[in-house]
Structures are given as structure tokens and as C-alpha cells.
Amino acid sequence: MKKVLWISGRLPTPLFSGDALYSAGILKALAMTGEITLSVVGTRRSDQAIDGGILGLPGITCVDVPPSQPSGLRSLLSSLPRDAYNLGTHELELALARLLKQDWDWIVVDHAYSAGLLPIVLRSQKDASICYIAHNAEGKIRPEIASSISNPLRRTIMGLDAEKYRKLEQKILKVADAVICITDADESYFRQFAKKTYVVPPIFLGATAPARVIDPNYPRAVLLLGSFEWVAKQQNLELIIDALLPSFKQNGISLNVVGTVPQTIRDRHADQSPHLIFHGRVADISGLLLSSRGGLVPDLLGGGFKLKVMDYAFERLPIFGLRMALAGTTPEEQSAMFLADSIEELAKIIVENIDNFDRLNRNPAKLLELFSERFGLERGLDRVRQIFLRAD
């Protein structure tokens, strides 16, 4: 039985964000091998109780510490990026140090924001191999995001933080015995710096929706799922609204936004109803899925695989998106979507196809078939077994 210590700056619970969902999929696959015991240590994302759906699985033990507190400007004086500085709390360091007294086969550093704890790991590594789970090519994407910010002061601060992320990423890549990433594009980037790289696509944890037929009874609406706490996601949302809403208003189409959106953005667009509706975080989105003719993947910033793509596909919802936002999907999968090369073109494609019921039903049926093969739990289990249970 292999012993794995999993270090997660933010524990993957609740499953409302892409990083939590990706980590949870790998954790579940590892637990299902029956050949691995996992100890997961990290900070809670909130004061809510830990969801046992993943962290309570047989073979998984969770050691959680209280949520981190924002540091204000103190992180600017640190060599660590803000997230890593905030998450590397004294309580987490103590919990990790206690766990490192044991012998481990693998030590997993889940996300770059957990890599601030790397010095503690290296001091007590012993014979353990180190695996870095990269949710993004931070050294590539964060400078791009920083440079896109219009406010000069904010752009400078984010640029400094992006450079700290790049340096921290380089440190973990240098010592990692295995790097797990989500897309072939990220793998190509990491291959320049890492010993061994592996592509593990996201593992879908939900259930496949029953068959349905989209017809004129469905509202002329599209759905945007997201987590909008990160400044890049907020800027994306603003760009999307500004680009799509004029056309939507003219053609009687509504945009349903699900996820936590800052009140400042909600207030700025308060007069757009009923063409723009902010629903906040929703525990059960089934009603909104059944009230939409498509799901949006229009991200201009942020990089990486968009987990909402899987939500839409397994819910049999047609996908309208930007080609550049569909990293990690194949040309065949993209052929079963409604894609554009610009946000302006995307608005036009939505208007042209919102009443095309033949394609609105044919595309998701084909996409579900393709996704079931590539993102199912069994395939994910095979991939993680090859990494963590391989014969060295």
C-alpha cells in the first residue's frame, strides 16, 4: 500500500471552483485504486464544515486548519506570491511538520499556491517522491493577465505577483519527480523544466443528465457558470457582458450568470434585467440548465481547461464558446460545439443558432459521447495509477 501526503493550500471543498473540482477528481481516482492511502492537509476555504463527499472517502484522512486571513499589503514584502503567503499559515506549517515525521512514498504539492511550503517539505522529504499538480502554467499565464489590467497601479502589483509565481513555479518544477497538468499545451510548457510530465484531463464527478430535447419551450437564454472571485475572472465577465449584451437585447436573448459576483459588478449592470440576471452561487443548477439553450465558455483571460465545459457536456447543454478558451479539447470535440474566434463573432453565432433546434440537439449528443470516453472516472483512474503506482 502506497502512502501519499497531499498538501493543499486550499482544501478541495466545497466544489464550487475549478481548482477544487480538478483536485477532487484526482483524489477520488487515487482512493478508488484501493492501493493508496492518502493524508490530505490544508486550509479550509471557509468556516463551513468539510464536505465528506471526497475527503471522507475510504483511504483518505483529512487534516484541516482554519481559513487563512488576508494579509493586506504585507505580502508585497514577501518573496512569495500573495496566495502562497496567505495560505502558508503557522497552523498549516505545524500540521505539515507533524505529518512529515512519517515515511511517505509520495508528497503531492497541489497547485502553485501550495508551493510556499516547499522548504518544509524538502527538509523532511526522506525517500519520498514529489509530485506537483499544476492547475495552470503560472509562469506563462499570470504575466499575460497582469499586462491586460488597465489600472496602472493594479497592473504593477499584479505584475510583481506574477513574477513571484513564476519563480515559485520554477522551484517546484526543479525538484518534482512528476508534474501533472491538464492540457497538452501546458505539458509542452512544463516539459522544458521538469523531469517527467503527465497530462491528466479533469475527471468528471457528477452524473450524466437524462436525455432531453431542446425545443421552443426553452427560454431564449444562455448560461454562464463560473467562479468570479479572481480579478482575471471579474475582468473576463465585464468584457463578456459589454460584448454580448447589446446583441442579446436586440434579439431577445438573456444571459444567466451563476457564481459569486462582486456587488460592484452587479450594481454596475443592475439596469440590464431581464437580459442579464445574476443568480449568485446556486446549490442546485438543474432549473437553470433546463431554462437555457446553451452554455457559455467565453473566457479571454486565465488560460487552462475550463471545468464548466464538462458540466455543460454531461448536462447535454450545447456549448457556445471562444476557440481560444477551449484548451484541452480536441478538434473532434470542438466540431460538436458552436465556436468563434472573437467575442464579437461569438455574439453573432449565438444569435444565428439560438433557434436552430436541429443543431442544438445534435451537437450535445455527439459531445457527450466523446467526453464520456475521455473524462470518465475509469480513464482517470488508469492515468493516476500509471503515475503513482508505476514501477520505478
Overall spatial form = globular
Question: Could you give a short account of the major beta sheet?
Answer: 7 strands, parallel
- Beta-strand portion reads 15-25%
Instruction: Provide the CATH architecture of the largest domain.
Output: 3-Layer(aba) Sandwich
Radius of gyration: 21 Å
Structural class call reads alpha/beta
Order of neighbouring strands in the sheet with most strands: 3-2-1-4-5-6-7
- Low-confidence stretches are none
Compute the number of structural domains.
2
> For the record, what is the CATH homologous superfamily label of the largest domain?
Glycogen Phosphorylase B
Helix content percent band: 40-55%
Oligomer: single chain
Distance between the termini: 15 Å
